Amino acid sequence: MSQPQTPEQAEHVITYAEAGVDVEAGDRAVELMKGAIKATHTANVVGGVGGFAGLYDASALLKYRKPYLATSTDGVGTKVAIAQAMDIHDTIGFDLVGMVVDDIVVVGAEPVFMTDYIACGKVVPERIAAIVSGIAAACQVAGTALVGGETAEHPGLLGEHEYDVAGAATGIVEADELLGPDRVKDGDVLIAMASSGIHSNGYSLVRRVINHVGWSLDREVSELGRTLGEELLEPTTVYTADCLDLIRTFPGDVHAFSHVTGGGLAANLARVLPTGLMGVVERDTWSLPAIFSLVGQAGNVPLADLERTLNLGVGMIAVVDGAIANDAVAHLNNRGMKSWVLGQVGPVTDAAAAAGTDFVQGAKGVDGGAVLMQGNYAN
């Protein structure tokens, strides 16, 4: 049986706002973000902002012989802690969009629409609008419509200045144009596309290292040419448009892509190679960007741990027919996407399989191909 109320309890009026949820602030946030969202809309988006569901005209599917829908969902991880600490919120959207749409383009699919979800301790309209403006800007880069989203206020669960973001997207690919291990063959060439920095994976390791050495985010780091916080908040590169353009420019010759996210280069590349083949990655084809060397040295992090945690300067890999590899590299570089030949695909050898931590066979539940990391980095 419940206890009787005190006079003070009986007189106290509890409202939703008093409980920590400000509905009016949520409405103001929507008004502030409307313009950014609408800027991503194409003629296929039906209705405006604020409906219960985002609508997309699917009649475009009629032009496909056999369309496959591709979908992906992801978040940003603990990189949001850097954004919150620096009170900069208009770039984290690129990290979210990149993590989602670039997983979709890996199979050759064009991501056509996306939705987002923001959970926060308190709705600050300007902060929420800044987050969504970044998401919308990245969607424009990818050519993806932002058709809906949700902002949830969770007082008592998240602190007043805390938030987390997540998103999901859907793409379309013709069934007989699906990219992946079935297309990869002996003699294919690996093409690296440069990352803009750490992107959105491995921040638990990075934050552990900087806390260990006692560095502040406003520390000027000569090797970086800017503050540590500015480097750590560098937005993720969104590769979708470059990948789709590569497919269209060299039809039939692009066989697979690998998005280098959690798990590092070798583990993610192994996922898109067939059993019996391995990608030989030549480390001496690139120099480690300063931030990765800095993290490794400051935390005395073993190279093997760095390689299976961070992208180390390569954010996307294209697996292409060897005959067009040099042309593909030139094409990407002409588009402004720094690229180079990373290595080659060949059969798995006994010597490679005995290479210890330099050899990876299958990854993330995929019993696929293998990757051999060979040589030393150029720096």
From TrEMBL:
InterPro entries given in the database record: PurM-like_C_dom, PurM-like_C_sf, PurM-like_N, PurM-like_N_sf, PurM_cligase
Q: What is the E.C. number?
A: 6.3.3.1
This protein is called: Phosphoribosylformylglycinamidine cyclo-ligase
- Write out the pathway annotation from the protein's UniProt entry: Purine metabolism; IMP biosynthesis via de novo pathway; 5-amino-1-(5-phospho-D-ribosyl)imidazole from N(2)-formyl-N(1)-(5-phospho-D-ribosyl)glycinamide: step 2/2
Q: Which domain of life is it from?
A: Bacteria
What gene name is listed for this protein? Answer: purM
Pfam family, any one: AIRS_C
Q: Where is the PurM-like N-terminal domain?
A: 59-173
Looking at the record, the residues that make up the PurM-like C-terminal domain are: 185-347
| GO function term, MF aspect, one | phosphoribosylformylglycinamidine cyclo-ligase activity
Mainly resides where? Answer: cytoplasm
Subcellular localization(s) per the UniProt record: Cytoplasm
Family classification: Belongs to the AIR synthase family.
Per the record, what are the reactions this protein catalyses? 2-formamido-N(1)-(5-O-phospho-beta-D-ribosyl)acetamidine + ATP = 5-amino-1-(5-phospho-beta-D-ribosyl)imidazole + ADP + phosphate + H(+)
Q: Which organism is it from?
A: Micrococcoides hystricis
The EC category is ligase
